[in-house]
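Ligand: nickel (II) ion. Inputs:
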Amino acid sequence: MELFDSHAHYNDEKFENDREQVISSVKAEGITKLICVGYNIKSSKEAIKIANKYDFIYSACGISPNDIPQTEQELWKDIEKIKKILQTGDKKIVAIGEIGLDYYWNKENAELQRKAFLEQIKVANDNDLPIVIHTREAVSDTIDILKNKIDVNNKGIFHCCPLNRELVKEALKLGFFISLAGPVTFKNSKNANEIIEMIPLDKLLIETDSPYLSPEPLRGKRNDSRNVKYIAQKIAEVKQMKLEDIAKITYENAERIFKMRK
Ligand code: NI
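Predicted complex:
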């Protein structure tokens, strides 16, 4: 069985001491494709470096809502840097992300977050890339941007999608993919089953968001892509399907959205 982890951060400092070791055990355990995702300039460059070192790793670059600079001027500079990175024509950069809105951690710069999100969607459109969306406590503004402010050419993914019925409904209506992570396995995620049932198989992805959000039964420990099987397992249980089938379907969906060939 092969699995595709659609979102992990091997560029995070938590992997500083054993990155190579973890990455090789991940591949040995059947995670044969994964996306290493950036969240600011430095981590985006690091993600690209890692993707170029391992054949089965691809990268996404972008500035997350929690990493946007203090001023608009600095934001433009960062966005220019992202554009420059893309001009290198690196074929292993397969998405712009993670980008989006986060009013849980930062609300006072909401306006600047919306600007950063919108501008980076333009960059994705110009480069014919899908987007990886991070959204937290910002359902209506996120949907408003995607619905009314800009056409997203390559749609994209709601990464570690909040288990919010309204958000999932609107995201699906707009043609986006939903990527589920550790929280669907948490015992206190009351509506996880309902959300899993809502998502059609052809819009479903799985991810770990490593090193964060370890699924049950490993909650609290450092996460890595090997644990993506727990997400697939949970989905298989709820949809009453075989684990192998969920693995295959989510693998092919990810290849489709990131425009990869096996
Ligand atoms: Ni992430």
